[in-house]
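Subject: design request, 269 residues
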């Protein structure tokens, strides 16, 4: 006779590890764990503002867009998809106690801050600015002919009042093709940029039919943002601008759709 307690323990362990099989049951008679439940935040559901020089979509409440149902997800506070016109941008302005990550999809963005940092962020580079106890910065499109398309991400820090800081690194497409590449983490694993938060950010580029997987651990949470293109997350079809979240342990399978996809996956505390 199969011991029920051991059976349940085995099933729970498989779910936490993210291992699930096709079919109704595993060979030993233990039911296959259920895939993580997904909550989708559709691109068209986001907040939107067109300021002429700036066309922006907000996955979570931001500036004049307020929705109490969407104030963030875990420590993820902002995902803004911005398109900034040629020779336009944000003048010097302050931030405090926030980890700000910028991910450029097309064009270039020039950064300057009160610490004396400066540089031009282009596709493939990931930038982190720790606002900490206080910093000022500007973001400007240096091109007089082309717009810039980017995602700006804010995450709540694990500790307030830290010394402000800045970092940027290049992550070539070859490192992200068909795989979830760590681009930001609290310990700089795999050569990623360091963030002062217990979160891990992955980036992936997927050709049509190409797959990448992520095992969400028990007690962790995932937000996936489609930067462009289309993909299937387990059985859920997602397109550019869509987000999906889960707080369930288990295996997430990302499969590139027609034309491929570029995606960010947040593993959150």
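Subject: RE: design request

Done. Sequence follows.
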């Amino acid at each position: 006779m199969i011991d029920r307690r051991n059976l349940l323990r085995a099933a729970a362990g498989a779910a936490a590890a993210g291992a699930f099989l096709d079919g109704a049951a595993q060979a030993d008679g233990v039911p296959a764990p259920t895939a993580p439940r997904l909550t989708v935040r559709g691109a068209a559901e986001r907040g939107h503002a067109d300021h002429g020089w700036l066309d922006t979509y907000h996955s979570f409440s931001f500036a004049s867009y307020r929705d109490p149902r969407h104030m963030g997800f875990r420590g993820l506070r902002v995902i803004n998809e911005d398109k900034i016109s040629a020779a336009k941008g944000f003048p010097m302005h302050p931030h405090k106690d926030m980890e700000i990550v910028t991910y450029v999809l097309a064009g270039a963005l020039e950064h300057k801050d009160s610490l004396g940092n400066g540089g031009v962020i282009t596709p493939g580079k990931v930038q982190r600015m720790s606002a900490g106890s206080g910093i000022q910065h500007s973001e400007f499109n240096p091109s007089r002919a082309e717009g810039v398309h980017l995602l700006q991400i804010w995450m709540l820090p694990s500790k307030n009042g830290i010394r402000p800081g800045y970092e940027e690194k290049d992550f070539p497409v070859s490192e992200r093709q068909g795989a979830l590449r760590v681009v930001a983490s609290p310990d700089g694993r795999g050569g990623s940029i360091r963030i002062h938060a217990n979160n891990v950010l992955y980036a992936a580029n997927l050709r049509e039919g190409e797959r990448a997987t992520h095992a969400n651990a028990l007690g962790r949470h995932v937000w996936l943002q489609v930067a462009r293109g289309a993909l299937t997350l387990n059985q859920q079809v997602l397109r550019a601008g869509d987000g999906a979240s889960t707080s369930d342990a288990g295996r997430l399978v990302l499969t590139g759709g027609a034309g491929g996809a570029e995606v960010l996956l947040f593993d959150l505390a």
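The chain has a mean pLDDT of 91.
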